[in-house]
Amino acid sequence: MTTTSSSTSIDKTQKVSLQVPTTTDVPPFFAGLHTSYIAGLAEKLDAKTSYEGAVTEHLRMSGVYWSLTALSLLKSPEEVDVIMGLTAPTAGRPISIVDWVLQCYDNRSGGFGGNIGHDGHLLYTLSAIQILALADRLQDERFLNLKESVIDFVAARQQPTDGSFTGDEWGEIDTRFTYCALSSLSILKALDRVNVTQAADFILSCRNFDGGFGCTIGAESHAGQVFTCVGALSIAKSLHKLDADLLGWWLAERQCDSGGLNGRPEKQADVCYSWWILSVLSITGRVSWINRDKLATFILKCQDDEDGGIADRPDDMADIFHTFFGISGLSLLGHLHAAIPECAPFRQIDPVYALPTDVVQKLGLQGQIMVAQEGDSVEERLQQYDTLTSQHKLFQ
Amino acid sequence: MHGRKRTEYKHRFADPQVAAGLAQKAQQWYALSDKALSLRENDDASMTLPLLDKMLRVNPDPLHLWNIRRSQLLLQSDSNWLSTELALTAAGLERNPKAYGAWFHRKWVLQRQSITTQVSTMESLLQQELALTDLFLQRDERNFHCWNFRRFLVGLELQLYGGTTDQDTTTLGDGSWWMTTTTTEQVIGPQITAASKTTTTIDSNNTTKIHSILQREWDFTQGKIVSNFSNFSAFHYRSKLLLLSSFGDGNGWSPKLASTSTQSVQAMAEQEWSLMENIMFTEPDDQTIWWYHRFLLDFVVTQQQQSAADWYVPWLARQAETLQVLVEEDDSERGCKWGLLGWHLVLSRLVASSEENKEERHQQMETVLDRLIEVDPDRTQRYQIMKKQKQQKPQP
Ligand SMILES: [Zn+2]
């Protein structure tokens, strides 16, 4: 696959138009229920008697990030701040989320842990930085005092031998960590602290015959891992190294008869892949390679129509992870804006940084996207990025 | 949360007795969790290790608990903790076979062991470990954590015999995947930062051992594939092993670490095609084999020398005939989508390599694409791009 940089015509008026599915058995989007589900989650999980809270205690940082980002697509920033107690404590909680995030800083490692007193890890360091970005508190003096140590922690995770990243100082290598590192450093404007070219080359060494990527060299392709790899390549502005036609085809074949997407061939569909796959199709300009209406319908069917929240599959128990990925998936499909009047005024999700687009634009975050064909227009949410035009070689 | 039925789950929590039991478990967890964090300050292994043992058996996910455990283990003067750690990680993985932290801890323990242990002791330890992967892959043949762990074990085995020295890196073919021709890196990959690597020179005895390891792995994928043609994980691993293989003189597969001769590529391609042909006619709607087929076509091209064109074109032509039969005999409702895709792929390779029947083949490709749009309307956009591109740039 070869690609060339070119100035692609950008149609600012173009909107992704989607039909509201017309079949009668498609449920509506329960914006109000999801809002109350997310709003009630913190209090529920914080209770020392919550079983769910106890078993997910170690990844609370990511849970908070998923909650905040999902809610940001349903409510205005001011409402999100009040509902979640983002920058000031809300009723019943002693401290704000921002205060809590700063308490999760681990001064032994220099990274952020998943909860107070836990060890710093790239997974939670990225979530913490994303939360601070959402809260517009990257300039908070308390964070500025830690910032250099955080950057040191992230940069020190790169392995000089092959450019890969470890999650923490214990040495586990995974392409997820490459994404966490590049995204964190890009948000902190410190990408120059690592060897970005080598990082991208490591990602490419994890590519398989199907065009996808696994968690390390030799590992099977997995759609979740594909997001982290393509996201990292986007931030590294190295998308020209992708075989986007092959990868796009493999991802398009993840769509099952139910309309939902699976993560690997011959596996069951699951709402979380709506995000992992749509984000990559969006970055590579190939969202139209799947049936968008059928996917939106599948996500809507996974909602809990009593208590709010979205599950992995229809009739399963909802959780915040799938709620975030379901709502973000609908946003990438253009569905939240086109078909749901209550959501129309609010923010959209950015497929590279997994943050609301206005946050990405305000911070001036850099990256690269592709269009599938010369003349394709670029979605409004992607216009701050560099654009590549694909040169197809479908017959090779 | 994956695969929990909503009504059952809610019903379970609605039972006051169950709810009280779970609330108690949560409180116990938090008590242990607080204790673990406070004990780490004291470095008292006699209390910390049993506590962590208890916690990680119940929940093997929290990475920081594994970290605390490793810190404590390293402080102990008696470093004879292999068996306790193997037992603990096995118990954790019984609980959650996808726990990253537990798999990593097991790798960490084994890698440390491999530095200090005699070859013969290590050999038998690795045999036991391979048996554990057999067991976990019987329960879930697609568990990529376990497949990665197996490749990690093979990496340790090969290291015993000097089979993982780094040499030249070559980019193959269209660059859609990379390999190091003379090493096993592409099969194994770094999953953990390297401890001090032992460098053994490869003598002939070691070469025999390396060959038998690779042979065993090849046979392992074969067994998995025969028991279920849908096992994409096994085909994936096979695609990596193929890079290290040699097919010569009708003896079937044999491992080799040097470049492959034209003859052996032909023998391999014929053998793999006959396996595929069987599966394609048995399970034409299962996409697994079709991805592997595409890989084989690429692989042959990258390994093929010009002089072999007199074999390559007839080989493709035979495939085209077979796939035409498969497609035309199909009378299922689904319309043999994958057969059409496979046929199209083979035709496209044929017109790129041979002038013979070119016009007819172009016609067939056009017909196949039209048929694909009918049987697979969800992916129409991609087929349209393929059609359009075909009109713009007819193959030379
Ligand atoms: Zn999921």
UniProtKB/TrEMBL annotation, chain A:
<comment type="function">
    <text>Catalyzes the transfer of a geranylgeranyl moiety from geranylgeranyl diphosphate to both cysteines of proteins with the C-terminal sequence -XXCC, -XCXC and -CCXX.</text>
</comment>
<dbReference type="GO" id="GO:0072657">
    <property type="term" value="P:protein localization to membrane"/>
</dbReference>
<dbReference type="Pfam" id="PF00432">
    <property type="entry name" value="Prenyltrans"/>
</dbReference>
<dbReference type="InterPro" id="IPR008930">
    <property type="entry name" value="Terpenoid_cyclase/PrenylTrfase"/>
</dbReference>
<keyword id="KW-0862">Zinc</keyword>
<protein>
    <recommendedName>
        <fullName>Geranylgeranyl transferase type-2 subunit beta</fullName>
        <ecNumber>2.5.1.60</ecNumber>
    </recommendedName>
</protein>
<comment type="similarity">
    <text>Belongs to the protein prenyltransferase subunit beta family.</text>
</comment>
<dbReference type="GO" id="GO:0046872">
    <property type="term" value="F:metal ion binding"/>
</dbReference>
<keyword id="KW-0677">Repeat</keyword>
<feature type="domain" description="Prenyltransferase alpha-alpha toroid">
    <location>
        <begin position="34"/>
        <end position="353"/>
    </location>
</feature>
<dbReference type="GO" id="GO:0004663">
    <property type="term" value="F:Rab geranylgeranyltransferase activity"/>
</dbReference>
<keyword id="KW-0479">Metal-binding</keyword>
<dbReference type="InterPro" id="IPR001330">
    <property type="entry name" value="Prenyltrans"/>
</dbReference>
<comment type="subunit">
    <text>Heterodimer of an alpha and a beta subunit.</text>
</comment>
<keyword id="KW-0637">Prenyltransferase</keyword>
<dbReference type="InterPro" id="IPR045089">
    <property type="entry name" value="PGGT1B-like"/>
</dbReference>
<dbReference type="GO" id="GO:0005968">
    <property type="term" value="C:Rab-protein geranylgeranyltransferase complex"/>
</dbReference>
<dbReference type="InterPro" id="IPR026873">
    <property type="entry name" value="Ptb1"/>
</dbReference>
<keyword id="KW-0808">Transferase</keyword>
Automatic annotation (TrEMBL), chain B:
<dbReference type="InterPro" id="IPR002088">
    <property type="entry name" value="Prenyl_trans_a"/>
</dbReference>
<keyword id="KW-0677">Repeat</keyword>
<dbReference type="GO" id="GO:0097354">
    <property type="term" value="P:prenylation"/>
</dbReference>
<comment type="function">
    <text>Catalyzes the transfer of a geranyl-geranyl moiety from geranyl-geranyl pyrophosphate to cysteines occuring in specific C-terminal amino acid sequences.</text>
</comment>
<dbReference type="GO" id="GO:0005968">
    <property type="term" value="C:Rab-protein geranylgeranyltransferase complex"/>
</dbReference>
<comment type="similarity">
    <text>Belongs to the protein prenyltransferase subunit alpha family.</text>
</comment>
<dbReference type="Pfam" id="PF01239">
    <property type="entry name" value="PPTA"/>
</dbReference>
<keyword id="KW-0808">Transferase</keyword>
<protein>
    <recommendedName>
        <fullName>Geranylgeranyl transferase type-2 subunit alpha</fullName>
        <ecNumber>2.5.1.60</ecNumber>
    </recommendedName>
</protein>
<dbReference type="GO" id="GO:0004663">
    <property type="term" value="F:Rab geranylgeranyltransferase activity"/>
</dbReference>
<keyword id="KW-0637">Prenyltransferase</keyword>
